Amino acid sequence: MRDDEAAFTALFEAHYDSVLRYGRRRTDEQTARDVAAETFLVAWRRGVPDDDPLPWLYGVARNCLANAARSSRRETRALPRLAGPSATPDHADASNDATVVRAALALLPERDREALLLVTWEDLPTRAAARAAGCSESAFAVRLHRARKRLAALLEPRLPTEIS
Amino acid sequence: MTDDLLVRVAAADPAPHAAPLDDGARAAFATIVATPRSRRRARRARGDAAGRGGRVALVGALAAVAATAYLVVVPSRDAGLLWPTAYPAAATRREPLPYDAEGVPARPYLLALAERAEDQPRQPAGRYHYLRGRSEYLGRKNLPNGAIGGFDVTQQTEEWIGEHDGSGRVEDFEVVGEGGEDVERLPGRTNGPQPPGTFTAPFYWEPIPSDPAALRERLRIQEDTPQRRIGGGVPGQYFNGLYRVWTTKAIEPDESAALLRALADQPGILYRGGVTDRAGRRGVAFTLDTEPGTERHERRVLVLDEGTGAFLEFEEEARTGTDLPLDVPAPAVTSVTMLLANTRVDSTAVRP
Questions:
Q1: How many C-beta atoms lie closer than 10 Å to residue B267's C-beta?
Q2: N or C: which terminus of chain A carries fewer CB neighbours within 10 A?
């Protein structure tokens, strides 16, 4: 095995699951797998930055996901695109709060939502999240601040203390 | 606003647990490493910013279609789904177009259309490719009660694609539900102006090569991706490739002729006579069937303008019930893609 193939194998083994879960958090299971495959195909054909490749992979996955969504809408038939990830236990279902939070997230502008998800669900530090989002660190900080503010406003009426 | 908010978001993660690589991952890996690498691209990519990751040819190959608009967010009725989804309209069976049942080899008809295509005037001058279309397809989803339900989706799409810098505009509307008022929200795309680099060559504006080998490679790269398990082999790539090219750039007469001549060389394509497409336009139909027993056993239908060879409509018909909602018997049309405009304009403010 050549060095570049060995490096790609290591990259795949280290990060495939993270990229797959990035997709699962945002779309159905099959599309998530397609997006993960496309993401690593891009990495295979183009190569990846030498340092900290995961944010770069998330950035590619984000674009693949957007394009896959566009593609599926116009050209495919019978896609189980809205199906939940049946093979993946959905732990949030058991929690009313998780459902409320997800519903609120879905109401955010896409950029705001993505900023929040990158630092929570993908658990990226701000600098890496900015790379994944394709913007500067300062711009990402502004985006994240705005997202938190908007999400807090959306969730505020549903806080348990107020309901009780 | 405190960090408690981020804790709540983190707790709503629908995929919190890591998992070892499974058979699907290993199969994807095998497919990927069997794909030729681009040394030049690999060198160039090193040091790229993350945000430019999407502006690659492969993604361009996937991006053969337009984005989807969000006008009204419909609350989800499915617990556990992140994105709001509209309540599905009942799936309805769409009859195949009334083309000739038998069909004859398509080659002479496609070559005749290629000659007519060459005689057509060139596209008007303009910085932007303008594409307008409408698509209708039958989908299915897992309902909360565990059953599979069908629903109909209709999209109207518009793209302004600037080949000078990859900027443009997208105005797409997805009509979901019987009332025709709701649209569905999708992640990752918004309507309106698109920044430079959104649309990428070669799959949006690069001229269609007339050289058969170059055209073959162009369509292979465009169609042969894991995302598009289209079936039908090489003829399928030409068949699908023709309509996909027509829905991603303004087509010149010589490009149309090259696509038709290339299609004429493919086996298995049948001429099915005159039909009226779903938009009420008169055309001629060609079909290609994929093999029974394959993942996508279906018939594909191309409707072309008899006078100009221009692409009018593409349809897919499921020949078995495996891809259909349970209440829709096969054969049935599962997707319809109509091209309503293919031209150039000077500005994203112009709507022909």
A1: 11
A2: C
Give the separation between CA B19 and CA B126, rounded to whole angstroms.
51
Cis peptide before B331 (omega within 30 of 0): yes
Return the pLDDT at B155. Answer: 73
Chain B (41-70) residues lying within 8 Å, Cβ to Cβ, of chain A? 41-56, 58-59, 62-68
ipTM of the complex: 0.81
Q: Does residue B10 belong to the interface with chain A, where contact is any CB pair within 8 Å?
A: yes
Buried b or exposed e, range B52-83, using 16+ CB within 10 angstroms: ebbbbbbbbbbbbbbbbbbeebbebebbbbbb
Burial of B254 from C-beta contacts in 10 A (0-12 / 13-18 / 19+):
middle
Q: Which residues pair with B337 in a beta bridge?
A: B135, B314
pTM metric for this prediction: 0.53
Chain A residues whose CB is inside 8 A of the B14 CB are 24-25, 85, 88, 90-92, 102
pLDDT category at B151 given cuts 50, 70, 90 is: low
State whether the Cα torsion B341-B345-B350-B352 is positive or negative.
Answer: negative
Predicted confidence at residue B296, as pLDDT, reads: 57
**Residues of chain A found within 8 Å of residue B16, distances taken between Cβ atoms:** 91
Which residues of A, range 95-114, sit inside 8 Å of B by Cβ? 95, 97-99, 101-103, 105-107, 109-110, 113
pLDDT per residue as tens digits for the range B47-82? 333 323 322 222 222 222 222 222 222 222 232 222
Residue with tokens 């594409």: B131
Residues in A touching B64 (Cβ below 8 Å) = 71, 75
Task: Using a CB–CB cutoff of 8 Å, tell me whether B237 touches chain A.
Answer: no
Q: Do B53 and A63 touch (CB under 8 A)?
A: yes
Q: Does B221 touch chain A (CB under 8 A)?
A: no
Q: What is the pLDDT of residues A131-150, one digit of tens each?
A: 888 888 888 998 899 899 98
